[in-house]
TrEMBL record:
Listed transmembrane segments: none
Keyword check for Methyltransferase: yes
Keywords, sorted A to Z: Methyltransferase, Transferase
One Gene Ontology biological process: methylation
Keyword Hydrolase appears in the UniProt entry: no
Classification via InterPro entries: Methyltransf_11 (IPR013216), SAM-dependent_MTases_sf (IPR029063)
Domain Methyltransferase type: 52-155
GO molecular function, one term: methyltransferase activity
Pfam families in the record: Methyltransf_11 (PF08241)
Protein name: S-adenosyl-L-methionine-dependent methyltransferase
Domain of life: Eukaryota
């Protein structure tokens, strides 16, 4: 569920634009057992393995992975939000060296990892993160390739083609109406299966499984959802009164649509989530990856 939020709720956003407190209080469905169990089953974590949680957020799923690998295993979490990492430290009790503030799209991303991890990681896990990596999605996969051992698995779930299309289109329309370029503000990357398979192969990760999973997702407040996920990108820097008008316009557009549905009986919105699930394997070590 997503409780009613105003601009004032986000005074505690960190430099990445996220508030760990608001995220945990209003979007816990993202890391709920119902949402994460299917991808954790695909991960297939084993006792004693080394596993990286790409975009660990506030650490709830990271803690589950720790239990799966046991005391002999090694888990490292990485997130671009310092606030999320601080909260993950409280939840997981992992040492500082195993919780890293870093950008998975960065060229220097690997420099912060603990010794004997890069090139020796058994599995990489990522949930609801990679669709935020629209700046350089290939670099994410190149970094994953370098971190994994030969035979290691990359297992992820992200927004896929068509994800929250109605809300996204309404946001674009509302911003364009005001002379604001929505493309420059749009943070999302929702690829087709074919596109993501192409990216995996370009980073020498062989796809083993790809599927699109429609998953209508209930939230009780669409205004809150828009402010949570769009406040630090689509709506950034917009005067509060104008922001309110934009959000109300988007909600009204969605109310008249079909994909994003309001259930009058349950008093819930059902957002048109579409999840792309991926399992890929690192076949061998390639020095000359085809990226800049």
């Amino acid at each position: 569920m997503c409780a009613t939020l105003t601009s004032d709720d986000f005074a505690g956003r960190d430099a990445s634009g996220w508030s760990a407190t608001v995220y945990r209080n209003t979007a816990s469905y993202v890391f709920s057992s119902e949402a994460t169990e299917p991808i954790l089953q695909l991960l297939g974590a084993l006792q004693g393995e080394r596993i990286l949680d790409f975009g660990c957020g506030s650490g709830e799923v990271t803690a589950k992975i720790m239990r799966l690998v046991g005391r002999e295993g090694v888990v490292v979490g990485v997130d671009m939000s310092e606030g999320m990492i601080e909260r993950a430290r409280e939840i997981t009790m992992l040492p500082t060296t195993h919780l890293i503030v870093g950008d998975t799209q960065g060229h220097t991303f690997l420099e912060e990892f603990p010794p004997n991890f890069v090139g020796k990681c058994d599995r990489i896990f990522s949930n609801a993160v990679l669709h935020w990596c629209n700046r350089d999605p290939v670099r994410v996969l190149v970094n994953a390739h370098k971190i994994l051992r030969v035979g290691g698995l990359f297992v992820a779930e992200m927004g896929g083609h068509g994800n929250v299309a109605e809300v996204r289109n309404a946001l674009h329309a509302a911003l364009r109406k005001r002379g604001i370029d929505p493309v420059a503000r749009d943070p999302w990357f929702f690829p087709t299966i074919e596109k993501y398979m192409e990216l995996l192969k370009s980073a020498y990760l062989r796809p083993l499984h790809t599927s699109l999973q429609p998953r209508p997702t209930p939230v009780d407040d669409l205004v809150g959802w828009i402010r949570l996920f769009g406040g630090h990108n689509f709506l950034k820097g917009i005067e509060p009164r104008e922001e309110q008008l934009i959000v109300e316009e988007v909600v009204e557009t969605c109310r008249k649509g079909s994909a994003c549905r309001w259930d009058e009986v349950k008093k819930l919105w059902y957002l048109d989530y579409v999840r792309l699930r991926i399992v890929a394997v690192k076949m061998d070590d390639h020095i000359g990856l085809r990226v800049g």
